Amino acid sequence: MRLSTRLAISAAWLTFGLAGRAIAQDQPTPPAPPPPSTLSVDSPISDLLANPAALAVLNKDLPGLTTDSHLEMIKPMSLRQIAQFPQAHLDDDKLKAIQADLDAANAAASPTGSASSPAAAAPSAEPPMSPPTDIPSASAPN
């Protein structure tokens, strides 16, 4: 009786253990995280502070923000969210100006560059490659 109980437990363990592995293997791998989004007035202030280009925009458009005594409290919030408070002194025109500067910073930092970059503006001096002509055709008789 003891041997049959052990065999039954071992068989159940193997069955469920292997089935669990098969189920785990059937699970699709999680998708890669999306690429970082562009920074905007809707991004958390902590994200803007962590990006050197966005930090330069904040220092230009909102001088004193990085040294404000309330900075730690508003880091999780976006500029648009803090604009709802009168003491922030942020109106729609100011948010639009900041967004324009952030857009310029995003374009400068994008991997493809912008139309104003020298690489994008200068045409290539080399002609396009043409296929080689000295390779024998696969259908040609030997």
User: How many strands?
Assistant: 0
Q: What distance lies between the first and last C-alpha atoms, to the nearest angstrom? A: 77 Å
In the predicted model, the low-confidence regions spanning at least 5 consecutive residues are 114-124
| Strand residue content | under 5%
The total of helices stands at 7
Helix and strand sequence: HHHHHHH
Largest sheet, described in full? none
The helix/strand class is: mainly alpha
Radius of gyration: 30 Å
* Overall helicity: 40-55%
Task: Output mean pLDDT.
Answer: 74
Q: How would you sum up the global shape?
A: extended
Question: If you had to describe this structure to a student in words, what would you say it looks like?
Answer:
Helix 3 (52-61) packs antiparallel against helix 6. With 142 residues, this protein is mainly alpha-helical. The model is unreliable at 114-124 (pLDDT under 50). The protein has 7 helices and no strands. It has a domain at 45-109.
Question: What is this structure's SSE topology?
Answer:
Blueprint: H1 2-26, H2 45-50, H3 52-61, H4 71-74, H5 79-82, H6 92-109, H7 118-121
Helix pairs in contact: 3-6
Relevant terms:
142 residues, extended, mainly alpha, 50% helix, 0% strand
